[in-house]
Design a protein that fits this description.
The chain is mostly helical. It folds into 2 domains: 200 residues, Up-down Bundle (Alpha-lytic protease prodomain-like); 111 residues, Alpha-Beta Plaits (2-Layer Sandwich). It has 9 helices and 3 strands. It has a 3-stranded mixed sheet with strand order 1-2-3. Helix 8 links the parallel strand 2 and strand 3. Helix 2 packs antiparallel against helix 5, helix 2 packs parallel to helix 6 and helix 4 runs antiparallel to helix 5. The longest helix is centred in the middle third of the chain and has 30 residues. The chain is elongated and about 90 Å long. 39% of the residues are buried.
C-alpha cells in the first residue's frame, strides 16, 4: 500500500503543477477552449486527492464493523471521480455555448498551444504509468485516476489540433465549438467511470475474473474435486472474495475434506494475480456423480465413469451439481 500511496501522491503533485500551467496558458490566450482544459485539471487535482485518501482507507485492516476490509471505498472513489468529471464536462459545455454567442478576444494561440501540448504529454505518460501500476497492485483507484489523466491527455491533443486550426484559419468561433465537443467527450468518459464503479458497488459479476478462476481450476484439477458449482466473486479493493460449493467423495473424513479445500485455496492464491479469499462449502457426492467422477479405485462407485465434464462459466456458476 505504501507504493500505491507514493504513486498517487506523485500524480497529485503533477496534476497541481499542470493545472497551474494550463491556467497560465489561458491567461496568455484568453481561449475558452484552454479554459475548458484548465477547469478539468481542477477535477484532476480533487480526484487525485480523494484517490489518495481512498488508498489510505482501503489499506486499513479489517475490523468488527468492516469484516471484509475497507476495499470497497476504491469503487466509491472511482464513482466520485466520475461524477466530478461529468460535472466539469457539463459546466464546460454550458460556458462554451454562452461564449459561442458572446465571443471573447483570443491572442497568442501558438504559445498557449505549446503549453497545452507539454501538459498533455506529461498527463499521458503519468496516466499510462498509473494504469500499468493498477494492474500490478490490482487497484481500482489507480486505474480510475490513470484513465482520467489519459482522457485529459487525449482532450489536450484534440485541443492543440483545434487551436492550430483556429490559428491558421482565423475562424475564432471554432474555439467555442471545440470546447463544446471536448465537454461532451469529458462527460462520456466520466459516465464510463461511474458505470464501472456502480457495477463494483453492486457486486456485478466480473466475467473476466471468473473466467480466470475457472481456467486455473481446470488446469490444476484434482480427482477428488468431483464438481464445483455456485461460484460467486466479489471485489474488495485489491482483494478478491470467492465462495463456492465443492463436491467431494462422501467417505472422506473431516481432516481429508479440510485438506482438499485448503489445496484449492492455496492453488488460487499461488496462480492468481489477485490476493484471493475462498469460502468453500463441501458437498458429499451422490451415486449420480459416478458417471463423471474421476476418482480411481473408488470403493463405493455404483457405475463406471463414462463422461468428462469440463468446468465452464455455465456449470460452475449454477447453484446445482453437474448432474442436476
Amino acid at each position: 500500500m505504501q507504493s500505491q500511496k507514493k504513486i498517487i501522491l506523485l500524480a497529485l503533485v503533477i496534476s497541481a503543477l499542470l493545472m497551474l500551467g494550463k491556467f497560465a496558458a489561458y491567461l496568455i490566450t484568453g481561449s475558452n477552449a484552454i479554459l475548458t482544459d484548465a477547469a478539468e485539471s481542477i477535477v484532476n487535482v480533487l480526484a487525485s486527492a480523494f484517490a489518495f485518501y481512498s488508498i489510505y482507507l482501503s489499506s486499513q485492516p479489517r475490523d468488527i464493523n468492516h469484516p471484509y476490509g475497507h476495499g470497497k471505498v476504491e469503487f466509491f472513489s472511482m464513482f466520485v471521480e466520475g461524477i466530478l468529471i461529468m460535472i466539469a464536462g457539463v459546466l464546460i459545455g454550458l460556458k462554451s455555448i454562452y461564449n459561442l454567442f458572446n465571443p471573447q478576444q483570443i491572442s497568442s494561440l501558438f504559445d498557449g498551444s505549446i503549453i497545452i501540448a507539454i501538459t498533455g504529454v506529461i498527463n499521458f505518460v503519468m496516466g499510462q504509468y498509473l494504469v500499468n501500476s493498477s494492474k500490478k497492485y490490482n487497484s481500482i483507484t489507480l486505474y480510475a485516476d490513470g484513465k482520467h489523466l489519459k482522457t485529459d491527455a487525449y482532450s489536450s491533443a484534440g485541443l492543440v489540433v483545434g487551436l492550430m486550426l483556429i490559428y491558421f484559419t482565423g475562424i475564432w468561433y471554432l474555439d467555442s465549438v471545440l470546447s463544446i465537443a471536448l465537454g461532451f467527450y469529458i462527460v462520456f468518459n466520466g459516465y464510463k467511470l461511474v458505470r464501472k464503479s456502480v457495477a463494483g458497488l453492486m457486486d456485478e459479476s466480473d466475467f473476466v475474473k471468473v473466467g480466470k478462476v475457472i481456467s486455473i481450476l481446470n488446469d490444476n484439477r484434482r480427482d477428488p474435486w468431483i464438481d464445483i458449482h455456485n461460484l460467486r466473486t466479489q471485489q474488495y479493493g485489491h482483494e478478491l472474495h470467492i465462495d463456492c460449493h465443492v463436491t467431494l467423495p462422501y467417505y472422506f473424513d473431516l481432516n481429508h475434506v479440510h485438506e482438499e479445500i485448503s489445496k484449492i485455496d492455496t492453488l488460487m492464491n499461488a496462480k492468481s494475480e489477485v490476493r484471493t479469499e475462498f469460502f468453500i462449502h463441501a458437498d458429499p457426492c451422490l451415486p449420480q456423480c459416478c458417471h463423471y467422477c474421476r476418482m480411481k479405485d473408488c470403493p463405493v462407485r455404483s457405475h463406471e465413469k463414462n463422461t468428462d465434464i469440463v468446468w465452464n462459466m455455465e456449470n460452475v456458476t449454477r447453484n446445482q451439481k453437474h448432474f442436476e
